[in-house]
């Protein structure tokens, strides 16, 4: 391993020893956004060589269930995913991984950029699920790391106008720097949804075709369902709240479709190609870097947990 990024799920395990129904019951290595250098290969591996730089797709599916056979392997019930208990993650000096999930990086893509293919994959998969393209105006709720990569993916897919919403002015500045056409700073109060929807629609200056909720909170989903045009789509990417009360009947009466997103599938080569070609630049997202000492690991997780100016914290191993 040479580059490993910290994800919000890593911080959650670090602080709470659980995430939703996944509970850390014994010591576990965390980390799943990663890239490294091939040290050794099996005797039947032909597409990689010792010394190759590779990005690692972190989920190993069973390849036999109906989901896998249909190509939707991200839904596999037997998925073994880095740093999802009890599977060890990749914040380590070495990992053993299937060659089919190791993607060779071209010379103009760094190991850090290779590690960023993991979060970028979430945005790319969301855009594919929702059919983002030159014909769709896009609203992104949340400008954390996943909201920002979704913004970048939507623009790379050709969306002509993208508006980003958040409660944090600093994050919205970053969204503007990364190409958001407009940003809207909102409150955390559900009572403000109606007036904020009006502001969002004014900033969009057109119908909202697709909304990506990258926070997954009750308020963000309420806003998404109300702001999206009749016949449009709301794509729930974030998982902030397990349960929420939302105006579902009103949205259904306007035929607003709600799509779920879980991780990603068949995205890594596309992400590498987008980065290599310059269509997406993930470098600005990497705001902090640390080494791999005990002291650095503690500092890095504390910086990531505090949020603030930290977007993507990266270990250089």
TrEMBL record:
Keywords tagged on the record: Metal-binding, NAD, Oxidoreductase, Zinc
Keyword Oxidoreductase applies: yes
Similarity field: Belongs to the zinc-containing alcohol dehydrogenase family.
Species name: Ceratopteris richardii
Source domain of life: Eukaryota
Cofactor(s) this protein requires: Zn(2+)
Protein name: Enoyl reductase (ER) domain-containing protein
A Pfam match: ADH_N
CDD domains to which the protein is assigned, alphabetical: sorbitol_DH
């Amino acid at each position: 391993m040479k580059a490993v990024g910290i994800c919000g799920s890593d911080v959650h395990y670090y602080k709470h020893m659980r995430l939703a129904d996944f509970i850390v019951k014994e010591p576990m290595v965390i980390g799943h956004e990663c890239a490294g250098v091939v040290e050794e290969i099996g005797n039947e591996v032909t597409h990689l060589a010792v010394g190759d730089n590779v990005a690692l797709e972190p989920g190993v599916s069973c390849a036999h269930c109906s989901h896998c056979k249909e190509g939707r392997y991200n839904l596999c019930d037997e998925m073994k995913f880095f740093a999802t208990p009890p599977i060890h993650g990749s914040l380590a000096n070495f990992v053993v991984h299937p060659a089919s999930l190791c993607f060779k990086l071209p010379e103009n893509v760094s190991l850090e950029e290779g590690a960023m293919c993991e979060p970028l994959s979430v945005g790319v998969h969301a855009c594919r699920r929702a059919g983002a393209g030159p014909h769709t105006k896009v609203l992104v709720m949340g400008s954390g790391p996943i909201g920002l990569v979704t913004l970048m993916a939507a623009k790379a897919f050709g969306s002509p106008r993208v508006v980003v919403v958040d409660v944090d002015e600093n994050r919205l500045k970053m969204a503007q720097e990364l190409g958001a056409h407009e940003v809207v700073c909102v409150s955390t109060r559900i009572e403000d949804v109606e007036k904020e929807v009006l502001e969002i629609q004014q900033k969009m200056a057109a119908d909202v075709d697709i909304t990506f909720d990258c926070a997954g909170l009750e308020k963000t989903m309420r806003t998404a369902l109300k702001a999206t045009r009749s016949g449009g789509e709301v794509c729930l990417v974030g998982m902030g709240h397990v349960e929420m009360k939302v105006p579902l009947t009103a949205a259904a009466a306007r035929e607003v479709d709600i799509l779920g997103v879980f991780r990603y599938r068949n995205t890594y080569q596309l992400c590498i190609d987008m980065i290599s070609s310059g269509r997406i630049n993930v470098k600005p997202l990497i705001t902090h870097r640390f080494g791999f000492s005990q002291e650095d690991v503690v500092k890095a997780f504390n910086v990531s947990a505090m949020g603030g100016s930290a977007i993507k914290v990266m270990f250089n191993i």
